[in-house]
């Protein structure tokens, strides 16, 4: 039987449920324990998923835990991941990985010193739709990607999240909270970014929560909520990225990439699935047939319909990669370069100047049908 690495989770908020419920889909990992500063939250999740509830200190000392998943708020990602590495365990973080290049490089140094791995969400680019776009690009059917547009716009999390405060503080905002899905997907499709430029504004200095249980409460906004950015990639492609939590409605596609030989319409990188549309030169736009990719299969209710949700795939890929001695796809280098791009966008918005990237990375290996199936537990 293939080895399974024991996994512990620090942070038992909303996103933890997805990790706990989806982990059994994958081979190579076994959820064992969870921890939170709020022990009641840890005990509730532990009871729900038949795990051990531990203090953070006890989880870091637990010999049955090989990898710790860091699901804390972004402002403490660095401190928690540092503690995990110092305890001699691999760490996989929710996005954004860290909030500065300096933090990321320090974690890299600590991991290398102990021979440990660092991984980070998002892993939505593993999805069947996005890997189909990757196949189109790698096959040459689009020619070189020369430009494109991305739009991720809405009206904030205060309308649905029970505790939306941190979304409007430094370390979040639309660039660092939702941007990782878009930036990471662009990097895996096109390659690393060379430099960025941006404009940033904060139209509303406070927000009114309309979700329960805190409906009517006002919260401060201390980070830009509308950012329009331009990304120049190392291969020469230029992409427009517009992010905003000040938009009630719009008609823009999530992502469009323009190649020498055609255009591809990419579904929302926040999700694994969706329809891929493609133009071959001047021919009419057509929706491509569903690719037989396991991470494009609808498996979860979402609103009034079904969606493909395979979060935890990146964690499983890292665990399997550790046992197989190969690179994992949601790597520290990829995550840090995405942070470099996003923090560069914010700095450009503040300064009004172009910002050159301090890091680079290789595109992660494509996750084709065979490789994706190999991550699934045998019963699937």
Automatic annotation (TrEMBL):
InterPro entries: Gfo/Idh/MocA-like_OxRdtase_N (IPR000683), Gfo/Idh/MocA_oxidrdct_glycsds (IPR050463), GFO_IDH_MocA-like_dom (IPR055170), NAD(P)-bd_dom_sf (IPR036291). Residues 130-264 form the GFO/IDH/MocA-like oxidoreductase domain. Residues 6-118 form the Gfo/Idh/MocA-like oxidoreductase N-terminal domain. It comes from the Bacteria. Keywords: Oxidoreductase. Signal peptide: none annotated. This is Gfo/Idh/MocA family oxidoreductase. It comes from Mesorhizobium montanum. The lineage of its organism: Bacteria, Pseudomonadati, Pseudomonadota, Alphaproteobacteria, Hyphomicrobiales.
């Amino acid at each position: 039987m293939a080895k399974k690495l024991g996994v512990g989770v620090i942070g038992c908020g909303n996103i933890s449920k997805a990790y706990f419920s989806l982990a059994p889909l994958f081979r190579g990992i076994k959820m064992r324990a969870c921890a939170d500063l709020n022990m009641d939250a840890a005990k509730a999740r532990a009871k729900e998923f038949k795990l051990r509830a531990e203090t953070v200190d006890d989880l870091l000392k637990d010999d049955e835990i090989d990898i710790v998943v860091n699901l804390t708020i972004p402002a403490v990602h660095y401190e928690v991941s540092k503690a995990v590495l110092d305890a001699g365990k691999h760490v996989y973080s929710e996005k954004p990985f860290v909030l500065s290049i300096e933090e990321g490089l320090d974690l890299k140094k600590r991991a290398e010193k102990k021979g440990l791995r660092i991984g980070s969400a998002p892993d939505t680019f593993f999805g069947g739709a996005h890997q189909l776009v990757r196949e189109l690009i790698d096959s040459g059917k689009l020619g070189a990607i020369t430009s494109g547009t991305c739009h991720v716009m809405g009206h904030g999390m205060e309308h649905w999240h029970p505790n939306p405060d941190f979304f409007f503080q430094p370390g979040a905002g639309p660039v660092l909270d939702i941007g990782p899905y878009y930036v990471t997907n662009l990097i895996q499709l096109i390659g690393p970014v060379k430099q960025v430029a941006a404009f940033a504004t904060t139209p509303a200095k406070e927000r009114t929560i309309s979700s329960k249980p805190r409906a009517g409460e006002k919260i401060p906004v201390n980070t830009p909520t509308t950012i329009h950015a331009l990304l120049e990639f190392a291969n020469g492609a230029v992409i427009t990225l517009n992010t905003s939590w000040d938009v009630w409605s719009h008609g823009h596609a999530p992502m469009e990439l323009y190649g020498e030989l055609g255009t591809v319409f990419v579904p929302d990188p926040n999700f694994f699935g969706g329809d891929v549309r493609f133009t071959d030169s001047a021919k009419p736009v057509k929706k491509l047939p569903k690719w037989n990719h396991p991470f494009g299969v609808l498996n979860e209710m979402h609103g009034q319909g079904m969606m493909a949700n395979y979060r935890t795939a990146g964690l499983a890929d890292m665990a399997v990669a550790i046992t197989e001695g190969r690179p994992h796809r949601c790597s520290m280098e990829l995550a840090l370069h995405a942070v470099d791009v996003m923090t560069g966008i914010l700095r450009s918005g503040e300064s009004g100047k172009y910002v050159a990237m301090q890091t680079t990375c290789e595109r992660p290996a494509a996750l084709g049908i065979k490789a994706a199936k190999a991550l699934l537990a045998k019963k699937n």
